[in-house]
Design brief:
With 191 residues, this protein is mainly alpha-helical. It is built from 10 helices and no strands. Helix content is 58%, strand content 0%.
């Protein structure tokens, strides 16, 4: 059976659509935003040269709007020529960092993984990186992972040898339930 793929192209947002998205985002999460008005988000977007062009893509806009306060904090005191160096990879790096911070906070609020003494964010990142490396080594964009395989604490083993003693201590405490919570905090598509 031959698979057929459909290629879709998203049209870029115009200024009005970008403004509407920002307005809806800010009104949807008022407790998370230090800003009372969506216009301040728009002004922040305008502060970093070239950023407005990048956020015309809906996917990039959705990521940037979540990490915008962190990005502005980093770039606001830099010279304009330094600010122009902001690349899509920087946006993805900021977003991934934001994602793992959010997941650590979520797991702590739920009272999960309290027995771990190591850096939970590093465990989540390592787990995700090890799964991604496995997919890459198999030459695939996605891999099927059996549940018992995702519960393998070896996927948490750090590449940094200095972190191994802490890992060795924590790994002895992990249950299958703990590994499920670690998996839930990773950038994974499950299904």
């Amino acid at each position: 059976a031959q698979e057929r793929f459909v290629e879709l192209h998203l049209r870029k947002f115009n200024t009005e659509q970008i403004n509407k998205y920002i307005e809806q985002y800010v009104s949807s999460f008022p407790q998370e935003n230090n800003s009372d008005h969506w216009e301040s988000y728009k002004q922040q977007l305008d502060k970093i040269p070239g950023l407005l062009e990048l956020v015309a893509t809906p996917f990039i806009l959705s990521m940037v709007i979540q990490i915008l306060p962190r990005m502005v904090e980093k770039y606001q005191n830099q010279e304009p020529h330094e600010q122009r160096k902001l690349l899509r990879t920087d946006i993805f790096d900021y977003f991934v960092d934001y994602w793992f911070d959010f997941q650590v906070e979520r797991l702590h609020e739920q009272g999960k993984l309290q027995s771990l003494t190591g850096n939970l964010k590093e465990y989540l990142k390592t787990y995700s990186q090890n799964l991604a490396s496995r997919a890459l080594s198999q030459g695939k964009l996605e891999i099927a992972i059996e549940e018992q395989d995702t519960l393998n604490p070896g996927l948490l083993q750090p590449k940094d040898q200095a972190l191994l003693p802490q890992y060795t201590t924590d790994i002895k405490k992990l249950t299958n339930e703990d590994m499920k919570f670690i998996r839930s905090g990773c950038l994974l598509k499950t299904g």
